Structures are given as structure tokens and as C-alpha cells.
What does this fold into?
Amino acid sequence: MSKLYLVPTPIGNLKDMTFRAIEVLKDVDLILAEDTRTSGKLLKHFEIDTPMQSYHMHNEHKKLDYFIKVLQGGSTIALISDAGTPAISDPGFLLTRACIENQIEIECLPGATAFVPALVNSGLPNDKFVFEGFLPVKKGRHTRLTELAEETRTMVFYESPHKFLKTLANFIEYFGEDRLISVSRELTKMFEETKRGTIKQVLDYYSSKPPKGEIVIVLGGKK
It folds into this structure.
């Protein structure tokens, strides 16, 4: 019976893989992976030999119709990303929407995603928050930051190490240097670190100690 499974994978520590996720990946007919080399290591570790094909941001439009036909033919497919939950700043939305439009059953497993632990351990209000993911690099960046300057809820961003210091400088420009912030990097990995303080304090810290690894920024809202 055709079905799409959205399966979270560990963001660092392989022990965060769930028993259910392993079971699903072993049982489906096909696994779609963002990077087959990265996912190949994960599947090998858990002794999963299910066939795998690539599905990433550069081919998801082109391959969408093909995989819908595969599902309509009665196959079961699991979608995974390099790390975390599919469709959270990773491919997955287009395939999920197409399945809904074609009345194909979808099941999303609970599991690892980077922004949840970063938000929870930030010490900033998390009863209400907004997830922004990656900010626009050029076009639209000024407009989005101007809009967010009035946001009263806690905000969550993803950022890469080489753009991180520039983003903090932008935050000072739009939100002020005294706004509270929490930065988590390398979550669940050996060198996991969370730095809390004002934007200026955190910028000063990382200016002398350039960050490495995946970064989650949690920013306090306007008071």
C-alpha cells in the first residue's frame, strides 16, 4: 500500500536514531536521501540495505512527478535529509504537498531537529516563538529584518559559520546590541556549545573565537 514516510535522522549523535525510524527504513521499498553518501554511512551503521536514490534541492522539482508515480504504483517511500527532520530547511515540502494533492498517505515520525533543543535550553521565552530558518542572503534580507524588529515572540534562525558574524552584526543594527540571544552549535556532538548573553557579548566572544559547525540562533523578541 503506497505511503510516504518522513523520517528524522540524528543531527550528530547516532544514538538519537529511534527504533521506529530504523524499522521504517528497513521496511520501505525505497529511501530518498538528500546526500546518498552521507546517508549511506547512516544506513550502513544500522545495517539497513534498502535501495536509496537522491532527492535534494537541485533535483526535487525534476523528480517530483516520477516519485509520485512510484508511490501511485503501490510502493512505500521514506524521505530522509542529511540531518534532522525532512522539510525543516531541507527538501520535503514539495513531495509532501504533491502526496496530499494525489491522496497518497503520509506519516511523519517524531525525532531529531536542531531548533527544539536550542530553543528549550536558551532560557528565552518558548511558550510562543517563530521559526525563521535561514535569512535571505541578499534580496529581501533588509525587508525581513525590518519586519522582525517589531516581533515580540522569540525568534529562531539557522546560520552557517561563514555568515554567522555578519548576521550578528546585522542583528545589532536592526535589534540593538542589548537584545538577549542564545547561540547553540554542534548540538548533540562532542564539541556542543551554547553561548548566552546580549548580541554584543556573543558577537565579541565569537569574533575572537570563530565558530565551527551548524549553528542555531535563538533571539529574544521586542519588549
